[in-house]
């Protein structure tokens, strides 16, 4: 888990925390994150980092769900 906040999308002012919050609220695809937050919709330089955060967060959520079950 990241301790500091990092700006991922400068074009839309989106931080890693905002991306993680959207995933926790149900976003599971890049398209959903792009629609909700605007990431990867302008210059596109944030797409790789956003995808990494998405994959890591979905994996962590799946692991937590498996531990609870």
- How far apart the termini lie comes to 22 Å
Largest sheet: 2 strands, antiparallel
Shape field: elongated
* Strand coverage percent: 5-15%
In total, the number of strands is 2
Question: Order of strands side by side in the largest beta sheet?
Answer: 1-2
- Low-confidence runs: none
How many alpha or pi helices?
3
Classify the secondary structure makeup into a structural class. mainly alpha
Q: Provide the gyration radius in Å.
A: 12 Å
User: What's the helix-strand series?
Assistant: EEHHH
Helix content range: 55-70%
What report would you give on this structure?
The chain has a two-stranded antiparallel ribbon with strand order 1-2. α1 (16-24) crosses α3 (47-68). The chain has helices at 16-24, 30-37, 47-68, and strands at 7-9, 14-15. The chain is mainly alpha-helical and 69 residues long.
